[in-house]
Amino acid sequence: MKIILTNEVNGLGSAGDVVEVKDGYARNYLIPRGFAMRWTKGGEKDVEQIRRARRIREIATLEQANEVKGQLEAVKIKLQTRAGDTGRLFGSVTPADIASAIKDAGGPVVDKRRVALVAPIKTVGSHQVTVSLHPEVSVKLDLEVVAA
């Protein structure tokens, strides 16, 4: 089945790409979750809008990525969340939480899909996360999780 990706999908492509996938994968996973839409002749117009939006959002050049890396390294990231008496969190810290904490700390806007966690963060303390800005540029950030 021919589909148009509306979001980046690992191993498949990025938003605006037209790809061929198995029918079941498209019908049961990609389309219901909003990662893709069926390809039609009228959908070709949507492809250009999706690509235009992607170009605006993404970091295109290596210089831009290095500039954002410098901004991220200068920011101290502190995330307040609910925790028990032993320092164990109620739930865990998600990449979306980290992206919003970066923004709240005065850093640049980072897409939550660019934040990579090695293991789930479930305790209070200092943790390290990786943000992939460009295929050649990634930055390791120290995240301080404190109980609210």
TrEMBL record:
Pfam families: Ribosomal_L9_C (PF03948), Ribosomal_L9_N (PF01281). Residues 13-40 form the Ribosomal protein L9 domain. The keyword rRNA-binding applies. Transmembrane segments: none annotated. It comes from the Bacteria. One of its GO terms (cellular component) is ribosome. Keywords: Ribonucleoprotein, Ribosomal protein, RNA-binding, rRNA-binding. Binds to the 23S rRNA. Belongs to the bacterial ribosomal protein bL9 family. NCBIfam families: L9 (TIGR00158). This is Large ribosomal subunit protein bL9. The gene is rplI.
